[in-house]
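Tutorial handout. Part one gives the primary structure; part two gives the three-dimensional structure as tokens.
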Amino acid sequence: MKKMKKMKNTKKSKADTKIRPVPMFSIIIFAITAVCGACHIMFYKSAAFADAFNQSIGRAVRLTLSKISGIFPFSVMEYLLFASPVLIVCLCVIVARTSRRGGICAVRCVTGVLSLAALVYCLFAADFAPGYRGTSLADKLSLTDRQVSAEELHQTTLLVIDEVNSAAQDVDFPVKGSSTMPYDNYGELSRKLCDAYGTVCDEYSFIDRYSSGVKPLVISKYMTYTHISGIYGFFTGDANINTNFPDYICVYTAAHEMAHQRGISREDEANFTAFLVCRASSDPYIRYSGLLNMYEYLSDALYKASPELYTDAASRLCIQAKAELRAYSLFFDKYRDNKAADVSDSLNNSYLESQGTAGTASYGMVVDLAVAYYLD
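Part two.
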């Protein structure tokens, strides 16, 4: 009797396999993908819906990814990208071999692979996409949307210069004019930035409040040729930084990528959030880094608007900060012009434009936010 019952179950199992050529986990992922796709469409229709999604489901997804990837001391995103060619070859071999067993096996294998691609899309739709379509940071901060004049740029730049000069007094400049992070590792920097984020979150509840860290990239030196100083892995939750750049840029970049990690998707808004966080920090070097990076954005815009006003403002910058900027310019000469940077910029610009932003030009739009913030 027991043997007969066992044979029945075996037959039933085989029958189920014939009825379900698509794996159950693939069916579940495709169903979730359909829901995510519908929500993604709604992000375009309603900023309020995008905001609500970003601060509820999106926040939960980002927190979960951050905590899982945070278990590992290395960048999970970087290692997955390194391994992707090998993984793709392995998947192709598996699909080819499985296809020889028959139609159903081939369908199950192909749908399994497709479900992995669908899962990546789901993570993008839940983690990063709503931030591009939600209410602007200017509206959330009640900042006036204005046409910035050269005089307003000049006034704002002077205010930031005063703060840079003050912060520089508490910073050491031991290496050929360049400042050095006074931290043992990036874990310490992450903790200090999380503290600063906590201060900002007390004022702005739309920014996710949790503890996370940044991951140094192994390929930092080679990545510098692309001019990329940091990248957020939306499918892993990693906030990654290029450690080959000068320390004051690494600090600001870390704050920028952690802003992406907390639901701020647009580049100008991540830049401004990073500035607010650095400026709110109790650590002198973090404050100095945020202020000097903001000065660079403002001074570039001011130079284009009025070279005379730029000259006046730049003359007021302290000697230490001027030496820092000269040292950075010398460092960057090696990487300034190359094909990798052109390709990277073109791809990044296309991606950002596809998300409804001004492309790579959106990085510099932080100037408008800064002027409104200071002069309002």
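Part three, for discussion. The chain has two domains: 19-133, 137-375. The radius of gyration is 25 Å.
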